[in-house]
Amino acid sequence: MSKEQEMDSRGNEGKKYRTPDGIPADIVMFTLTRQERKASTKSLPRFDLKVMLIRRRSWPFAGAWALPGGFSQEDESLFETARRELKEETGVDGSHLEYLGVYSKPGRDPRGWIISHAFFALVEEWVLEKRQSADDAQEVGLFTVKEALEELDLAFDHREILADAYLRIQQQMLHTTIAKQFLPPHFTLGELYQVIQTVVPDFAELNFIRKITSTRSRQGILEEVRDENGKPMLSNQYSQRPAQLYRFTDFTPQLSIYT
Amino acid sequence: MSKEQEMDSRGNEGKKYRTPDGIPADIVMFTLTRQERKASTKSLPRFDLKVMLIRRRSWPFAGAWALPGGFSQEDESLFETARRELKEETGVDGSHLEYLGVYSKPGRDPRGWIISHAFFALVEEWVLEKRQSADDAQEVGLFTVKEALEELDLAFDHREILADAYLRIQQQMLHTTIAKQFLPPHFTLGELYQVIQTVVPDFAELNFIRKITSTRSRQGILEEVRDENGKPMLSNQYSQRPAQLYRFTDFTPQLSIYT
DNA sequence: GGAATAGTGTCTGTTAGACAGTATTGG
DNA sequence: CCAATACTGTCTAACAGACACTATTCC
């Protein structure tokens, strides 16, 4: 049946056809935790990519871990739903939030015809940690992605959503500059490299620093940070030898498999 | 309100909250039309990227052009809805079909709370041309994307959907091997270049043939077609001098802005 | 021969990749 | 001095980009 015919016969007001029972937005909240390593001198922290989950208390999937989320209302777009939920869950606004996809397989939710929209968010570590301890109404957990995918029984099709989100964040990490969401405004190339490697373990570049700094084709992604006198700004937070600080520009190069 | 609380208070059966009035899938059907050029010798055809639209006959937006689509049913996923609609509209199965996104801005459809899911499909030219002439129940149009975006008044938010789909297909054309959807199984590098340029007008590679054929980093995207004796297969369909035929492999390289 | 497409030659400067070596500084 | 990170030197092969040049075939 064509759209027009359906719409014609359905008319404006009458509820002739069955409609869904709910349209939630579920959010995969990623964060990067840093943990100091014990070393004899200063060293880069080890990073872990973690995801926030909430333990369900009621049917269905009571006791299972699930992605945070909530139902969309008539007066908001799904992106607004997701932003609202993200704010409610973290208490913080302005995190990176991106649409992932729709999950609508029949039977995915035993409560009925429920079509879920997945988003993923990149949240700063302290936000989720605060949330984790402050909220006594819900049990909140922070798990590494590997743990969550391999060892946890997730509710609904949330394992599939998380797996898709993981693939997407890896892709975005290499194709765009979302790495900046996990970094302070000024950072060293060592930090950037760690962030990329944490999200994309396969990423390995022997000459990373040189390629970023000295190839024309990648100029414009990053720029050196200088103080008001034009002197390069350095940091020795993670190393004995001070390292140049960088920041992202607004430029994101266009990639192509053909050129 | 958290998801759990909402779900708890909502219960299993009762329809306490308002739910959407319909969840359609709308499909941006792209095709590449070829038109021979009048030239004194054989020459490559000119290509145009076109999109199929349907003229609405009833409220709302009666008389306006709209994307084909239809409402999702409870027993199917949205991808299945889209595939079913694509089949119904074209009479053909197996075209490339890909999810684009969700369109849920309040007020986007005067009939009520209607959340649309956009897909895009890459369809062979003859399919849409057959459809165009065969169907007398609906007025069907094939427009270049430029025309549709700049000169037509599209129904609903379909201009926005089309604009998003156009951006996406350009991105996919450069990041993946969807160019093969617009090409016969065996094709010349001239044809491939034309296809890419038609979809991505900015694409310009002076040494396209050489880069594709003789750089190690891109080896594996394409392979030469050979006959059973191992002899390279050539085509002179579009040129006096026969050109080597190629086909896509299953390999798609991974891109990165950092390496 | 002309037209149209399909390549190849050639040159310069840039980049990739590997790996060794030097620099800096707190402990 | 040692450890840990931050670079720089160096060398070779590969690649990018520009542009001229040759190749093939039908008309």
Amino- and carboxy-terminal Cα gap of chain A: 44 Å
**In the CATH classification, which architecture of the largest domain in chain A applies?**
Alpha-Beta Complex
Main sheet makeup of chain A = 7 strands, mixed
Mean pLDDT of chain A: 89
Number of E strands of chain A: 11
Order of helices and strands of chain A: HEEEEHEEHEHHEHHEEE
Rough shape of chain A?
elongated
- Which class of secondary structure composition applies to the elements of chain A? alpha+beta
Output the CATH topology of the largest domain in chain A: Nucleoside Triphosphate Pyrophosphohydrolase
- The DSSP helix count of chain A reads 7
InterPro entries (chains A, B): NUDIX_hydrolase-like_dom_sf, NUDIX_hydrolase_CS, NUDIX_hydrolase_dom, WH-like_DNA-bd_sf, WH_DNA-bd_sf
Region (Disordered) (chains A, B): 1-20
Family (chains A, B): Belongs to the Nudix hydrolase family.
Domain Nudix hydrolase (chains A, B): 36-166
What attributes characterize this protein structure?
homodimer, 259 residues, alpha+beta, Nucleoside Triphosphate Pyrophosphohydrolase, seven-stranded mixed β-sheet, four-stranded antiparallel β-sheet, elongated, disordered N terminus, DNA-binding, NUDIX_hydrolase-like_dom_sf (chains A, B), hydrolase (chains A, B)
Itemize the secondary structure elements and their pairings.
Two copies of one chain form a homodimer.
Chain A: H1 3-10, E1 24-35, E2 46-55, E3 65-66, E4 69-71, H2 78-90, E5 96-103, E6 116-122, H3 125-134, E7 140-144, H4 145-150, H5 158-175, E8 187-188, H6 189-199, H7 208-214, E9 222-224, E10 234-235, E11 243-248
Parallel strand pairs in A: 1-6
Antiparallel strand pairs in A: 1-2, 1-4, 2-3, 2-7, 5-6, 8-11, 9-11, 10-11
The structure holds a DNA duplex (27 and 27 nucleotides).
Region (Disordered) (chains A, B): 1-20
Protein name (chains A, B): ADP-ribose pyrophosphatase YjhB (NUDIX family)
Keywords (chains A, B): Hydrolase
